[in-house]
Amino acid sequence: MRIWYQLVSSETGMANFLRATQALCDGAALPGTRVEVRGTQQGALGDQFRLFWNYDVREIIDNALAIRQQGGYDAFVLANSLDPALVELREILDIPVVSFMEVCCFHACTMGERFGLVVPNEKMVPRYREIPIGYGLRDRLASVEYIEFSNIRGFDAVFTDTRAGDDCVEQILAASRKSIERGAEVVIPAGPSSTLLAQRGIFEVDGVPLLDCYRLLVKATEMVVAMKEMTGVHVSRKLLYQAPPEEYVRKVAEVRNIDALRSR
């Protein structure tokens, strides 16, 4: 099984985070499962602002279209907690598309009645609130709390600088406790926070689980691929994820000159 595991973080600007996440995924994968953790060229640079975020989303879509054209992968994982381009990729890919927040939110619902999110900075709170509400989980969301990483790339230092890592962990735990006070029975640490906690073996606070999100994504993907192998089905083509007809794809490729949409 070969999995494309897509982060938004820059492969150069956040190399430490990518390496740490790759190590977690390698340890979680079954024998025979190859997880390829990928970043973007310039991502996670002010992506709390949706204007900048749109440029990262386009690169992710381009990566997925290249896989659609060339093949070679059994699943595409959106390993960014904002679930970028989820509907778009499920429309066009013939392999399972698995996403961070969707998996984590629904898994959290199997562990407790209400869950909370810990996100990188205050600006991101509204966007993160929208995501579980969009999944129909408004009543299961206890709160969205934030830590102080307005410069998302500042996260990269927490994997090499012990003092920075300690400070980040303290912030995550403090924000988690706020969420617990507001009724969370499970906490989802979004983004690099999850890798940092897992790397340090921290999986709960005050008796409340802190999800190990990136390894959870690996196991969820293995399950979805296995179910596709057994049943031949991985997505509904009714309504939301209905795929565009091939002739329409060819027409758009011609009109917009998009090579990645041309015939495989």
TrEMBL record:
Signal peptide: none annotated. GO terms for molecular function: amino-acid racemase activity. PANTHER family: PROTEIN DCG1. Belongs to the HyuE racemase family. This is Asp/Glu/hydantoin racemase. It comes from Pigmentiphaga kullae.
